[in-house]
Amino acid sequence: MKHLAHPRLWFVCGSQHLYGPDTLAQVAEHARVIGQALNDSPSIPLDVAAKGVLTTPEDIRALCLQANADPECAGLILWMHTFSPAKMWIGGLSALNKPFVHLHTQFEQALPWDRIDMDYMNLNQSAHGDREAGFLHTRMRLDRKVVVGHWQDEEVHARLGAWTRAAWAWHDLQGAKFARFGDNMRAVAVTEGDKVSAEMRFGFQVNTYAVGDLAERVNAVPEAEVDALVDTYLSEYDVAPDLRPDGERHASLRDGARLEAGMRAFLEEGGFKGFTDTFEDLHGLPQLPGLATQRLMADGYGFGGEGDWKAAALVRAMKVMAHGLPGGTSFMEDYTYHLAPGQHQVLGAHMLEICPSIAAQQPRLEVHPLGIGGKDDPVRLVFDAQQGPAINVSLIDLGSRFRLIVNEVDAVAHPPLPNLPVARAVWECRPDFKTACAAWIHAGGAHHTGYSYAVTTEMIEDFAAIARVELAVIDADTRLREFRQTLQLSDLYHVLAQGLRA
């Protein structure tokens, strides 16, 4: 995956000097063992470094400042083995700008009823040590995840793993650059947004680059690079006969390869993690990048159609969350509906740009008219998406704040689509089509989304907490009346939230 760092998590244990050096030595050993177990867990995709036991305000503040300054630290896992008076943590947590998760556990899984004495009780005080910490976190209005259970429990590892993926995506966005080739589609509301507010909230920057500059890079691609990419296409995809070397439209395939090579060079040289384009601004390009965008997304770049930079950043974040997991993640658009009685479904697609990571079978490489944009017919990968549970996620700018919206869906089988020359997915919404679509519209969800079989609602929830943005979830339990009331209360909360944090 392009431009993806592999940072570490810090596992931090809290205690105090009240119990004496022997108890603290046991605390340190237990913390080492737990830290190593978390580091070894296949459910947690980043390395976990045990940072020992903190017992004074000075040590706590120093560690938090070290975490801030360490570009390899993606976040902290906090655990209070004994009773660690929470006022000691105020200075450190006030300064901490990395996300943290609160692990509420204890070292021994089962109580040894026949040998419990006061030494045992003094050592194993997580039951109220973590509650003391939790009070302070709440008092300080700190957004965090709380994971409860024994540290060897697979469910605990899975929940920590979900948070880790969200923290990883957050780490990846800090300082990330996204390129807009041209502006957004004219007169469209949802692709607009405040890029200054976005950089303040999420840490990524978005800037516009002239399509002519990209065209210059595309035109400079050597023929040998085009030849190599064409060979790659022929080996990886089911290439339509008219695009093969002896086909009448082989030149279109070479144009597509030149586009990919030029765009890839532009993005790599600039250190970009995502991009947008629009069919209304293609000056100097022979065709709208379809195949190029699909393959760049498959390599981890974020993308948003029609200049939708929020979608590009979201897709990149979801790509990072999904890294190493099966299923695939793509830019997506709700396109049209199947409203047969008892079988309400959504057909999702886009003009060209759906990531082949979600394909159910080998994609077919074809060329067809686009119908808009006034350029040559673009090449693209055509395929049906996988079946199974998935999520659609939208990031919108409400002016005063950002909102993430999630709809849990189930991708299903569908009849053949011989005349639809684009990649596509068909899904059924949870809890049902009418409720989900109404809730989505009430929440202001965009028609552009990040669509994933690998990313979970829990990961998006954790990411929203880290970013301190609003989250609206539409799932099997959603009831429209309650959902609308929740949106209204959320509006009120976010008006007051900054005052509550003071």
How would you characterize this protein structure?
- With 502 residues, this protein is of the alpha/beta class.
- It contains 15 helices and 19 strands.
- The protein has helices at residues 21-40, 57-69, 90-95, 118-123, 126-139, 154-173, 195-202, 211-219, 223-236, 250-270, 291-298, 309-322, 433-443, 457-467, 480-501; strands at 8-14, 47-54, 73-80, 100-104, 145-148, 177-181, 205-209, 238-239, 274-276, 302-304, 329-340, 343-349, 364-367, 379-382, 388-397, 402-411, 424-429, 448-452, 470-474.
- The strands form four sheets. It has a six-stranded antiparallel beta barrel with strand order 11-12-17-16-15-18.
- Helix 8 packs across helix 10 (250-270) and helix 9 crosses helix 10.
- The longest helix has 22 residues, at 480-501.
What is the structure about, briefly put?
With 502 residues, this protein is of the alpha/beta class. Helix content is 39%, strand content 23%.
Q: What topology does this entry show?
A:
Layout: E1 8-14, H1 21-40, E2 47-54, H2 57-69, E3 73-80, H3 90-95, E4 100-104, H4 118-123, H5 126-139, E5 145-148, H6 154-173, E6 177-181, H7 195-202, E7 205-209, H8 211-219, H9 223-236, E8 238-239, H10 250-270, E9 274-276, H11 291-298, E10 302-304, H12 309-322, E11 329-340, E12 343-349, E13 364-367, E14 379-382, E15 388-397, E16 402-411, E17 424-429, H13 433-443, E18 448-452, H14 457-467, E19 470-474, H15 480-501
Parallel strand pairs: 1-2, 1-3, 3-4, 4-5, 6-7, 6-9, 8-13, 9-10, 16-19
Antiparallel strand pairs: 11-12, 11-18, 12-17, 13-14, 15-16, 15-18, 16-17
